[in-house]
Amino acid sequence: MRGWSGPRKAVATDPVRRHRTVRYLTVMNLESAICVVTGATEGIGRAVTAALGRRGAKLALCARTESKVQAAVEHLTTAGFTAVGQACDVAEEAAVIRFAEFVRASLGPPDVLVNNAGLAHGGPVVEMSTAAFDETFAVNVRGTFLMTRAFLPDMLAGGRGHVVNIASLAGRNPVPNAAAYSAAKHAVLGFSKSLFAEVRRQGIRVTAICPGSVVTPFFEKSGMGLEHPDRKLQPDDVAATVIAALELPDRALVSELDIRPANP
Asked: Which of 172, 119, 190, 112 is CA-nearest to residue 147?
């Protein structure tokens, strides 16, 4: 069966709670689960889609550049995975709505949403433009909200689902010359915590994953340097963490998870 085998009910053995029914989630089975990944054409997103594909998941990808999305879909389908994709700017409400409709029409309602799309503009606060600050929040925070709002009703209707938000250790710690990005990832963590509290008892899991420095095109695009890349995390490390969070056993849930280089 796709996704979880469904919520199970067990009678509590504690005498005080003997007459209550306890509802809990069964372990996620990713085979044939419908998984949506944003920012899926490179870096962490590309690694996550490949890892989910190897588990037998059906994949729906998006990123801003249509040619890159179609190249990623072709790569995945050639490898034998089920994958569809569409260009989507996660910060644009109409684009997100179109993408959600595309996913439902192509594969069905999703079991998993991985909010991975993000960007950063590095530099001192006094030199940062308002446009750069606004774009950082639009993609990282507004995009996470819009995507979650688009797909959450499907999960609530089915009584199951897992939202994974790729945050950052920059959302926990101050980062010089990356104030906008750090603030945006703090906001992603706050959103994740509130969403977790909101939907936890309705069968929906929410996990925020906070990686340290990962060797991806992100650093080159943001203008922020990356020292000792040979010691940093690789996208596959984060992908493995996402899979581990999704495949937790019965009754278990990781709401937040930090992943750091072993020897930076």
From this structure: 112
